[in-house]
Write a structure and sequence with these properties.
Blueprint: H1 2-23, E1 27-29, H2 32-38, H3 40-77, H4 83-136, E2 141-143, H5 156-165
Parallel strand pairs: 1-2
Length: 167
């Protein structure tokens, strides 16, 4: 009987201490997508990439216009063009299309690579900001994703402000 009452007392102490521990436990949650979209470093990186790739984008648009112009010419005058000139225009159109596709593939691959490079830098910066914020405000746990998030524990706005002020 004495051992039973001792076990009961131990259980009561354990339950009481876990409730006290849970009361001091601070949890925060961060919306990573929002940070990658709205943070100052992410916006700066996006502008940098746009500037870096604008020249190539203009080249692609120029070649696309050439393709469209040759197609329009072929549609309008295709029946009246001499056979030799018609073959030359068809060859020119095929070459322009292949060139355009090659340019678009290369552009897309290079753009994705640069975006991934820049976003990894932004994520690294965000992780440092989250860590600093967690230590400063005494968080025990910070999660990046959740099916449901209570707005009271969402610290995304704090992280965005911290990243904007931290150069």
């Amino acid at each position: 009987m004495k051992t039973l009452s001792m076990k009961f007392m131990q259980i009561l102490l354990l339950v009481g201490s876990t409730q006290a521990l849970a009361a001091d436990f601070r949890v925060g949650i961060v919306n990573t997508e929002r940070i990658l979209r709205e943070s100052a470093p992410a916006v700066k990186a996006e502008k940098k990439i746009e500037k870096e790739f604008s020249g190539r984008d203009q080249e692609i648009k120029k070649v696309a216009k050439q393709v469209k112009d040759v197609q329009t010419l072929m549609e309008k005058e295709g029946l009246t063009l001499p056979e030799g000139e018609k073959r030359n225009k068809e060859r020119e159109l095929a070459n322009l299309n292949m060139n355009l596709q090659r340019m678009q593939r290369g552009f897309s691959e290079d753009l994705n690579l640069r975006k991934n490079e820049e976003m990894s830098v932004v994520l690294e910066h965000a992780n440092k900001a989250i860590q600093a914020l967690a230590e400063k405000e005494k968080y025990d746990l910070i999660l990046q994703e959740a099916v449901y998030r209570n707005p009271n524990i969402d610290i995304t706005e704090k992280v965005l402000k911290y990243m904007a002020n931290d150069k």
